[in-house]
Amino acid sequence: MIQGIAVLGSTGSIGEQTLNVVRNYPEHYRIECLTSNNRWERLVAQAKELQPDSVVIANKALYPLVKDALKDEPIKVYAGEESLSQIVSGDSIDVVVNALVGYAGLAPTLSSLEAKKKLALANKESLVVAGDLVMQLSAQNSAPIIPIDSEHSAIFQCLVGEHSPIYKILLTASGGPFRNTPIDGFEDITVEQALNHPNWVMGAKITIDSATMLNKGFEAIEAKWLFDVTAEQIEIVVHPQSVIHSMVEFDDGAIKAQLGVPDMHLPIQYALTFPYRMPLHQPRFSFKDYSELTFAEPNLECFPALRLALESLERGGSSCCTLNAANEVAVQAFLDKKIGFTDISKVLEYALSNSDWSAKSTQSEYAICDAQGREIANNYIK
Ligand code: NAD
Ligand code: MG
């Protein structure tokens, strides 16, 4: 049976790689929906090639351009972020790939699960902001979530066939471009240096999150929700070669790991093909290329954003939503060269200590918390 796929954020790094996977298997997958925020010309080119049922351009101002460019195609064109949440419930869609970046991914995640679709989830912010709501809805509606984030895909793969609980998750981290930077060198880090990740080519936001190592904190939060473990059961291991994508330790002391070259095509494809595997024509791992694999503890003094994420994970409630909101503002301000690298964690710390906190929130309460986190972060930056 051919599966219908909606790719939310199809013009981004994960979105484009998802389309590469789908192009290899036209007998298994059909693209039903493509979406973009601003890259309308790329969206139009993808649509002309893959002939989806519909496209969404989230930035409404660009709607006339997309509509006009596709006027001779039998493709529906919608605009606005709200349309992302509406489009996923379509009958012809079996799988939603959420490759959006940031808080904008939360509403479509919840709508996909509401519509009982299988969710291939790259948008980790959905789980960071409102992991409780996301996992509850997934369970209630028997709508599976298959992680795309490479570490979580690795953990997911290690758990296939296991019937025993997790003792511990060993969450690997490359350490980013500043793994060996002395603590007094962080003040001078430039945008260009921070955008230059040693192992992965990714969207700008996650690349900065990797440089501050907040990304690893987000991934610990993501792991807590996906695999129902406590903060104490997650250990972060700096592994600069990014070959071991993560590991799971069991009660008997056995540790399972998933290895491969750093390439997102594999976790993306696995999220689509699970529980099966299919050939993937990408570079393969060889021990000959890696004479050593090394491991170290993360340095929380150099990477205070990671410390703040781990504290937020412990505290729970709305903390992680606040953390994410402040980070989206801070990362944008850093990319716009309005603040320095070390200011990012100062913004996070300020927002966390000046926001309201609640133990449990609804979707609309999370929206209020997100708006408050952004406002406090913006005021601090000003
Ligand atoms: P990206 O910036 O390359 O792409 C983001 C996509 O989302 C684009 O298509 C953009 O048009 C769309 N988008 C952005 N803001 C939007 C908004 N407000 N409304 C609607 N659409 C919007 O990002 P990416 O690197 O592909 O990352 C996507 C997600 O996957 C993130 O949550 C990231 O943390 C996660 N992830 C990425 C990688 C990677 O290798 N890139 C690895 C692991 C996890
Ligand atoms: Mg990751």
Give an account of the 3D structure.
The protein is 44% helix and 15% strand. The chain is an alpha/beta fold. Among the domains are: 3-147, NAD(P)-binding Rossmann-like Domain (Rossmann fold), CATH 3.40.50.720; 152-213 and 228-262 and 284-300, no CATH class. A seven-stranded parallel beta sheet has the order 4-3-2-1-5-6-7, with helices on both faces. Strands 9-8-10-11 form a four-stranded mixed beta sheet, covered by helices on one side. Strand 3, helix 3 (63-69) and strand 4 (76-79) form a beta-alpha-beta unit. Helix 6 runs parallel beside helix 10 (214-227) and helix 13 packs antiparallel against helix 14. The chain is globular. The mean pLDDT is 97. It binds nicotinamide-adenine-dinucleotide and magnesium ion. Magnesium ion is lined by residues 149-151, 219.
Low-confidence stretches: none
| Radius of gyration from the alpha-carbon trace, in angstroms | 20 Å
Spatial sequence of strands, sheet with the most strands:
4-3-2-1-5-6-7
SSE string? EHEHEHEHEHEHEHEHHHEEEHHHHH
Task: Please give the CATH architecture of the domain at 3-147.
Answer: 3-Layer(aba) Sandwich
β-strand percent reads: 15-25%
Name every ligand kind in the structure: nicotinamide-adenine-dinucleotide, magnesium ion
In CATH, what is the homologous superfamily of the domain at 3-147? NAD(P)-binding Rossmann-like Domain
* Individual helix count: 15
What is the CA-CA span between the terminal residues? 55 Å
Rounded mean pLDDT score = 97
Sheet with the most strands, sense and barrel status: 7 strands, parallel
- What structural class results from the helix and strand content? alpha/beta
- The CATH topology of the domain at 3-147 is Rossmann fold
Broad shape? globular
Find the count of extended strands (DSSP E, 2+ residues): 11
What portion of residues is helical? 40-55%
CATH class of the domain at 3-147 reads: Alpha Beta
